[in-house]
Write a structure and sequence with these properties.
Largest sheet: 5 strands, antiparallel
Number of domains: 2
Helix content: 25-40%
Radius of gyration: 23 Å
CATH architecture of the largest domain: 3-Layer(aba) Sandwich
Number of strands: 12
Order of helices and strands: HEHEEEEEEHEEHEHHHEEH
Length: 268
């Protein structure tokens, strides 16, 4: 997970107390109208003959929740439709009377279909970039083994999820890691980033702090590229840490385990 960032209001927020969000592994149901028996399938939804179910759902739900719906898409499951508002995904029945918040999992493949869809939507909205064009000389360079595989990571020295990722990296060999110091969690993050960059051995200072909580020293008064890194992160829409960029131009957000990291590196 990443650190909290500003996002557009979610559908759950727009509906206030009429929606109840449960854990990511469950589905929750809420009425978007006053409680009433569900309309028989033969009567719902009311629509002009020329309108599709999707068009009618879009029209009805926009009026009910007060938000622009970007798309309504039939799901592989019968009588279920995906509702997209920005990067938020919800589900509804053909009547639009009920909204479902949660993740849909394919029990055969164990794939999180909701997560895959959200990732695809977000990836399509991100700016184009190439690993070869990243200013790697402004990052802390850490080489393990042959260093033949490469990954660049935007990290904040006070980010708990970054520290979790660093634990996973311990099990990875033959990799070159470029750490872009991205102090977005407050003034102390900026101070620590300066101390790390100005340390005699940046890689050691970073690793000792993130993996062993070894206190940083020095005043951090040397010239640093932190302003450039912050501008780069803004350009690339790095909204949270850690965010990883692989040499095959794949982008991944959030702390991932050693097995997934190894798999992504092998594919890069």
């Amino acid at each position: 997970m990443n650190h909290p960032t500003k996002r557009r209001p979610s559908l759950a927020g727009l509906l206030g107390t009429t929606l109840l969000a449960l854990s990511c592994a469950t589905l929750s149901f809420a009425q978007t109208t006053a409680p009433a028996p569900a309309a028989p399938a033969s009567k719902a939804p009311k629509k002009a003959a020329a309108q599709s179910v999707e068009a009618q759902l879009k029209q009805d739900l926009e009026a009910r929740v007060g938000a622009k719906i970007d798309s309504v898409t039939p799901m592989p499951m019968a009588q279920l439709y995906e509702i997209r508002i920005g990067e938020d995904i919800f589900y509804t029945d053909p009547t639009g009377n009920y909204l479902i918040i949660g993740n849909i999992i394919d029990s055969r493949t164990r794939e999180n279909l909701t997560r895959a869809r959200v990732d695809a939507i977000k990836e399509a909205s991100l700016p184009q970039w190439k690993f070869a064009e990243l200013p790697l000389d402004t990052a802390v360079k850490i080489v393990r083994g042959t260093g033949k595989r490469e990954v660049a990571i935007f990290e904040d020295p006070n980010c708990g999820y970054c520290k979790k990722l660093e634990k996973s990296i311990l099990d990875i060999g033959d990799v070159t890691i470029y750490v872009f110091l991205y102090p977005v969690l407050g003034p102390d993050s900026l101070t620590k980033s300066k101390q790390i960059w100005c340390a005699p051995n940046r890689a050691k200072a970073w690793t000792d702090w993130m993996q062993n909580a070894t206190a940083l020293s020095g005043e951090g008064t040397c010239p640093t590229p932190l302003d450039k890194t912050l501008a780069l992160g803004k350009k690339l829409k790095v909204d949270g840490t850690p965010t990883l960029f692989f040499s095959n131009n794949k982008r991944v957000e959030g702390a991932i385990g050693a097995a997934e990291l190894q798999k992504l590196l092998l594919a890069s």
